[in-house]
Amino acid sequence: MNAEAVLLFLVAAVAVVVLVRWVADRTGLPVAALLTLAGIGYGMLPGPSITLNPSFVLTFVIPPLLYSAALDSSLLAIRRNLATVISLSVGLVVLTALLIGAGFAWLVGGATLAVGVAVGAAVAPPDPVAALGIARTSGLPHRLVTLIQGEGLLNDATALTVLSVAVATAGGVGFSAPAAFGQFLLSAVGGIVAGAVVAYGVRALRHLAREPLTANAVSLITPYAAYLLAERVHVSGVLAVVVTGLIVGHDAPRWVSGASRLQTGAVWRLADFLLEGLVFLLIGQQLPRVLEGLRDYEVTTVVPAVAVTVGVVLLLRPAWLLLTHTMPSALSARFGSGRGRRPDALTGREVTALSWAGTRGVISLAAISTVPLTTTDGAPFPLRDLLVFCTLVAVLVTLLGQGLTFGWLIRRLGLHASESDQARLRNEARAASVHAALVRLDEMGEEESGNDARLIGLMRDRLSHRLRRYEGRLDSLRTNSATSAQSSVVYEEEFRIRRATIEAQREELLRWRDAGRLPDAGLRVLERELDHEERLLPQR
């Protein structure tokens, strides 16, 4: 494709992303699934198309998406659920690859265990970008979102290590279990170290990044710096990016200015919107190209291969979660071990929801695309086109099948995040912060006199008024369930009235500008103040 064709494709892709987002907002359907369907439709049309380049995706697209997700994650919550995170990101990934490998060796003609493990490793890790995109729009509870985020810490490092070992074995290099384990350990530990180095390097720049534009530039380049450093020393770039994001996201509130935080948040929301949209379009667009590679395969070869891949992907995850969470707790309670239910154990409903959140995505396609065309002796790599097709089918089945039904499942399970609990916690934190401010004012008032004392008194009056408002909200939120619906209506009415007053202020400012009484520069300053005020309204 020439430069003009690439530009035309990008313009069309952004237009489709915007349109699909508009449809998703009005229908409640997941954006990821709709964009994948749009990509399939685009791929069927004549005209220019872009082939998935695994190096480009892993280097330029995945790092910012993972970093943005990590910034919104909780390092403390992931630490609390570390056992489950490691179970999903290491144990489940390895078992998935081995079971698919065994199924290929048993049922697919011409396939060896190593060939099957290669495709198994590619489809084993759920894509956190795809899974989180679906989970957040479905109202999944915060704890399960944290587990999905944490699962992305190690699963890609595990899968890519298993894939490289399988490809080397299938290509004639041979297999060594100690070497494979050592490679994984080096990749994981090295990725953690590389991520920590970049994170604390960013922290060292905090005095230079106080200004919003500089802070944005540093933030945008950080995931690429982490990925490149890790790849240079041959460790997990994906893990390095996630660790960097977790540390920076945990530490940044201490040194990032409010203005920088507002602007950086807006920039990352735009980056997520565009990159996620392009990724899902790209996934769907690969279907026609991959189908062309199946012409030389018999149906009796393709069907068992797809059945094994998709079957293991869909069935093993719930079985693993039941084995590691529900059954131990049930046995402990039945036989009276004295320990009772594990503090981090999942309930049956949570296991069901997390089982259906194992959405595969572009990382699986990028991984399988790295399989070489030939072996070390120059022969074609066994069943390569079939492996790519099986991976794409697994991605499409999870993206479309699970993606389109996940919201319905969450509603049926009654697992929506509790808005009233979150609202109460936020207002308790608000009240606590105002109490701390009043204490600080009292300390300052003992040292000041004259005008400063008068200003401190005015500020104390404002904070006291704010505290009374927060405490009033808390009183309403702590009432019994019979009045909770009424409280919700009161809050919605409050937000409606406040939005109406802000809109009236905007209209008056525009009248001043149109009459020549207020310059555009002054209008933008005052509009920004109103915008910040309005942005706070959706949070109760």
Automatic annotation (TrEMBL):
The keyword Transport applies. GO terms for molecular function: potassium:proton antiporter activity; sodium:proton antiporter activity. It comes from the Bacteria. GO terms for cellular component: plasma membrane. It holds the Pfam family Na_H_Exchanger. It is a multi-pass membrane protein. It is found in: Cell membrane. Residues 15-411 form the Cation/H+ exchanger transmembrane domain. The chain crosses the membrane at residues 6-24, 31-50, 56-78, 85-107, 113-132, 153-175, 181-201, 265-283, 303-323, 386-410. One of its GO terms (biological process) is sodium ion import across plasma membrane. Keywords: Antiport, Cell membrane, Ion transport, Membrane, Sodium, Sodium transport, Transmembrane, Transmembrane helix, Transport. Belongs to the monovalent cation:proton antiporter 1 (CPA1) transporter (TC 2.A.36) family. Na(+)/H(+) antiporter that extrudes sodium in exchange for external protons. PANTHER family: SODIUM/HYDROGEN EXCHANGER, SODIUM_HYDROGEN EXCHANGER 7. This is Na+/H+ antiporter. It comes from Actinoplanes aureus.
